[in-house]
Batch of 4 targets.
Target 1
Amino acid sequence: MATPFERKRRRALGEHLTPVRLFQDYILPEVEPLLAQYRWVDLFAGRGDLIFPLLELVPLADRADFFREHIFLYDIQPEMVECCVRRAVQLGVPESLARQNIRQQDTLAIYPTEILESPLPVYHITNPPYLYLGYIVKHPETQPYLKYFEGINAGYQDLYQIALINDLRHGIQKMAYIIPSNFLFGFSNANKIRDDFLPFYEIRKAVVFERELFEHTGVHVVICFFERKEKPAREPQRFDGLKIDHKVHLRHYYLSPAFHYRAGSEFEEFTLRYRAKRPLKVEYYLYREMMESHRGNLPLMVVDANEFTGREYRQHLFYVDETLFNMVRANPLFVRTLDTGTQDGRAGLYLIPEVFGADGIMVSKAPYRTHPIQIFLEPAMPYEDVLLLKDYFNLLLEYFRKKTDSEFMTTYKYSESAYTRKYLGLSQVRALIETFPYLDISSAQREQLRQAVRAGDVEAVVRLLESNATGGDLSLWL
């Protein structure tokens, strides 16, 4: 078990050493057939676990010659360099040769161009340091790393992104990177690196892990196999990936440059494409101050989202005026932004009276986005149409969760639940509600929508939405 000091030290270095099985199971089968064709390099070598297994494939008598031309290792920490030297010697490499090709160097700041001085192309296999800029700025021990983000690197958000862009600038042909999965799924924290990097490289394959891998961090990671394009082009990318959580399953990924090459963008594309011409206005939270300022004679039962005792939220009875009474009672929906881990507790829209036996959900202190949040819609709708919105929202949400394996949502926590728990952002809730064409369609169309939703017929729902839009290709979503 790592001590708090060790965890902090590794965090400060952005160091998360690669589990050996990770290489053996997912990287070695891809690169072993190419053994003699490349110069194998790791610029953030650690103990060398991503390169030395390749040397072990070479007959003992040939290892020194192979090592001389095919293997180069670098690390910023002298103790890691010494570890790699000892390991090379144990595998049959003379120490002088080992020290020639295993070097201490800050490769984020100074790229070792000598690796390019060979007829052999470079294949860079690495688990680079990860440390995001927001953390670096806030901690004195990491602030020296701010130098990496200056000049031509301004705008990047993590150390691993500096490693990627350095490889791009030096024309590396092939890479296998173990990096945070926000490279594929992140929004603002990864838009720039994807926009800058993926016009030059295609992702040939990926392995996405939705379970913890490293002893000292819960960072979610992906193995990406990159291959440089013959000519740079901003074009969609499609590739197969393995998704590993409670089981292993195959996923097909589509990255669109229109959405910064972000995986799981189908949900965002849908909500932009089918936003209603006159969308419902959405507001969140019922604050205690509002309750206090609307005192009156009408009884309103609310649960306090900030007071959870035992297994339930504390209830309060307020007497309020007619304005607030009518507003709260006309808006019985709340959003559960966070999966509970059970199938009947997934993120979505729910009825406050059914779940809490109350009229509203009050915020008495600070609002938290993981609490149940009451939704206020304008204009107010008849109860039957509130139910239609709830069922419409949940039908489409579950459809996109299935289609993208919930990858448009944020992974909240790995657990032994039947599925990986996810968080649905409030901006995503608003975007999906704004596709509900309540003000755009006739009463007859609304009845058609009601029947399609009741039948769980997503294709029929989209056809109705399409009738209110112009152009478009349904095949992207259906």
Target 2
Amino acid sequence: MWPRFKQFLKGFADCFGRREPAGHLETYVRGQFSNLPRKSIEPIAYEFDTPPRTLQQFLSRAKWDEDRMRDRIQERVAAEHFHPQNVGIVDETSFVKKGKKTPGAQRQHCGTSGKTDNCTVTVHLACAGPDGFRTLLDGELFLPRSWSDDRERCREAGIPDDMVYRPKWRIALELLDRSVANGVKLPWLTFDEGYGLVPEYPAELDRRGQWYVGEVPRNFHGWCKRPEPLHKDHHPRSVRELKVKNPSASRVDNLAKFSPQFRKQPWQTFHVKDSTKGPIIWQAKYATFHISHAGTPGRPCLLIVARNALDHNEVKYFVSNAPPKTKLAELLRVGFSRYPIERCFEDDKTEVGMDHFEVRNYLSLKRHLIISSLSLLFLAEVNQQDRGKTIGADGLPDPHGGQRDDLLSVDERQETPEVS
């Protein structure tokens, strides 16, 4: 593997002005690939006969261009791993940390422990393809308000003065914009309801021309039938109001139950996933939908309602700006594509040690995340090359219960509502 790794690293040679930092990168990544139970700086340094202080300075003070390394990762994915069915996936992960010195650490919701805990949270963008390829494109620290408001604390942690609190969905947009600027083409984007609950997020994706299928909470509001404005179209949008006779925006769970657009439709059945317990079957409908932006309808999009065929109480709601003739099977394929980023987090933490960092400096954390993405990309390429271009036998999902990429309707109906 190491000759391949050295060849892989040549693509990042211009990130370093001197030979020493490039050598430390190789040491650091070798440590991430090792069988060490703890892959933090000190164990790696001792394993490879390197002074721990040398690796500490490699992350915190040495002169090398971590932003260029991130660019090179994205450029490589853009050049070598594009597929018209690729899906970009937005999600966050957390790292349980003791004390208050780790950048961004505070008591907040921690997905790792499943409760409120002292942790650091980072937001990520992943790319997953139908050939089984998956990797993290980018990641950034979520800076809580308590940190952002305490600039002295931020300076002690090396957090730049221009880095302030942004909601996670804003960070997700920054990650997408950076990747697109480096040539990454994501035909689709998906996200969970933590990002979908903010109407501004899908609106911003729409402005960027980014197709998405994202989950929204059941209390997400909008209309299946666009309400009429009080004023004619020549009036400025800023002063438009809706006619009194128009219904107010409704929750998506109520629309799915009571709106004629959904009640008149039969459920369509799809084989969505294969798990260790057998196939997972979902039923779905979709209709035209207008997202409520502060009580005003947005552009027409689609509302997809899906329920577990064996447990009708398990219901998911998705919105999408997909082209009008997009098949429901394709929308569900994208909407149920968040699994690969979970595997990325799992692989990055178990195989690479992404959560083993013990740093109190923002630059060190940033560099660690970028190097971890580099390591994950190399492993993804090796896995893809050694495994071939198919997912298991005959294109079936992998043994971990991965999602099907050949999502088909059981009843083979593909009716699409008109979007107007």
Target 3
Amino acid sequence: MVPPMLPYQAHFRCIARCEGEFPLDEIIYRCPRCGNLLEVVHDMTALKQKSAAEWKTLFESRFMSTKWPHGSGIWGKREWVQPHIRDENVVSMFEGGTNLFWAQRYGKDLGLSDLWIKMCGNSHTGSFKDLGMTVLLSSVKQMIADGKKVAAVACASTGDTSAALAAYAAAAGIRAMVILPRGKISTAQLVQPLANGATVLAVEGNFDDCMAVVQRLANEEGVYLANSMNSLRVEGQKTVGIEIIQQFEWEVPDWIIIPGGNLGNVSALGAGINMMLELGLITKRPRICVAQAESANPLYTAYKMGYDKFKPMVPQTTLASAIQIGNPVSIAKAVRTLQEYDGVVEQASETELADAAAHADATGMFNCPHTGVALAALEKLVKHGIIKKSDRTVVISTASGLKFTDFKVGYHESKLAAVPVCKYANTPIQLPNEYNAVRDQVRRLLGT
């Protein structure tokens, strides 16, 4: 007699392995015993009832389909993410499924033959934060449907998280509150939560100050916390690594480079790939590089001195505003992932990140400054021989450059205070309204 299939289940558990499990619909963010963050743990025995080949076939059949909700890159892998969410509670904007851009010209400039950019900014709100927010808001919608009281969902943000929260909360009909550092995010990012009807609180201070406020609100006022210290966010974001490998026909790249601020993204990346390993879909790990801005580099400093010597810092102003974070809440998870993945940490100055973004733009991209940090790290790793010329390398582009037009305009007009010389600046050629003047300029440019 064939035994019945075990149901797919998951729960919260302390990352320090303290005793106790907590249901995913419980409002809890840290271990009540030791104060460490939690992580989502899946019943791997149940998941192993399908073979690796069966999982691949299932995921391929759903990928970019029109069947609700499996066309989403997250909900097409729902058994590995949030198996308990009912279809009617899924809040999805068809996130995930973003393209892998073969950066042929840019790679050739660097001497690389196999360079790819994972375009996570090609998403509903223009950043990778959609991957986690679909999970979090779907979970909250189901909590409310099941009778739990959630008055509002709130986050601290330097831009992208607030945009994703506001959009998904608006779609779900749930009140959203976002706490932003006043004057420290781009106009394009600020207008997104405003347009989607979120309550925006602009606080004097930096991201870490806003994060302290929202944690107190979660503890004292009962709002639901939507930052990456909430492990539900990480569950959605972990699919990016799975999706990259799926897009390479289940072959693992040699390197993945990812910008790091609050550091939930790198731990999410590792969590997804670890599931693939344990379930037999792959047999090796890629190496991971976390890229930080020199002005906000606590992880880089700890990497150089020893992770046990990690110290929070007061971040300085950086063009890469979304990763201007000096006290990342997911530091312990990130360090664990880097140690598992033979990882490295690199940093980029303001000039390096701006020039790297512009260099890649000139080959067909349109990069945000945070992706510029990752590209600058890539250029350093290639220069130092750490990334080999033939290594298949993926850079995760976290957001659309369209959110950062002030950065782009400032660069090409050579008006960025932090970048005294803009190596790749490209400015319009001013001409009178005379055909002969235009013709003569064109001839000079063409060498005719």
Target 4
Amino acid sequence: MTTSSITPSKFQSNWKPKFFTIWSGQALSLVGSSLVQFALVWYLTRETGSATILASATLVALLPQIFLGPFVGALVDRWNRRAIMIVADTSIALATALLMALFALGIVQVWHIFVLMFVRSLGGAFHHPAMTSSTSLMVPNQHLARIAGMNQTLQGLVTIFAPPLGALLISLIPTQGVLAVDIVTAALAVIPLLFISIPQPQRQIDQANGVARRTSYWQDLGDGFRYVVRWPGLLGLILLAMMLNFLLSPSSALLPLVITKVFNGGAAELGWVESVFGIGIIVGGVILSAWGGFKRRIITSFCGVIGIGLGVILTGLAPANMFYLLLIANFVLGFTQVFANGPLHAIFQSAIAPEMQGRVFSLIGAGATAMMPLSMMVAGPVADWLGIRFWYVIGGSICILATVVAFFIPAIMNIEQNQKKETESQPTA
């Protein structure tokens, strides 16, 4: 492995071949992970037929990122981020290989699958902030929104093609064969990292040269919280994103019930809706990749959020005899999701100090992930009490209203313009 440090400016002087080599490996690994996720969920469904088991599997996959995420970020900022990605991917691959052996021997148990899901989630809790915070050092600032668009396009492609591809593989090869695919794709993600140096934050470069002051882990962790709290625009934007995630997460979880109980549909109709949603993501991702959004990224993001709110409301209001409106609503949801999330990620990557990004991205990820089970705990009883589609209308309306209000909050709207002033007032990491 190449261990020499490289500065962001040196990497960015010829960034495209190096970055896209790494990005392609990560993209293939994402496909492999999606296939494994599909295969394991299908296995649990087929072998147990238990909703409790499936719900428990989802919870196991969320817990590491919710409870460990805030503590992982400080380690991401202290350690070499490339090494973190290599260790995370390799650890997940080894755990997958062990489970593959258990399947081959015919001795696999449900708890074995739960352990793998926990390990995969734990690895992701390290890998995601390491890759996201490294992207801002590898990619010039003016291209971050386009890269975010590419990532959204990739997510759309995986949404459309991973389930049928997973179903096809399961019909042709045993479960351990599908797991083997993930090991191969994980290797394709790790190999480029062994030969391409990734820029590190200036603090880590200084520490490697014995220049910077040494701080404890707990000091770094506290600095991360203070960095967010003392920057009103950043804190406001994070809280807004968490609130929107709380309002919108149930829309996808309740969708099967909307299709069966309101539109009297079945698996085919659900497949059509999910496919149209994925197509919307791909179309939006291609456009964002080419265009890059408005000069002020926050405007692009908020326009996307308003579009999501409109799509959610249309889902809640579409008449039962107009299934095509549900398809249109989900295309809108996929399409506008790209413009909401892509520029927002670019804002975080460009505005947050590189040496703080691991901590901040981990906090954001933990907060966003925590909103999922919390919102379902509220949305489920509300849907049973007031009707399935009530949450869509109310959630979408509040989503739009909150975003319109945010347009009039200078600290949030000027987060990119105030970047330098805010970061200069922060304590040294």
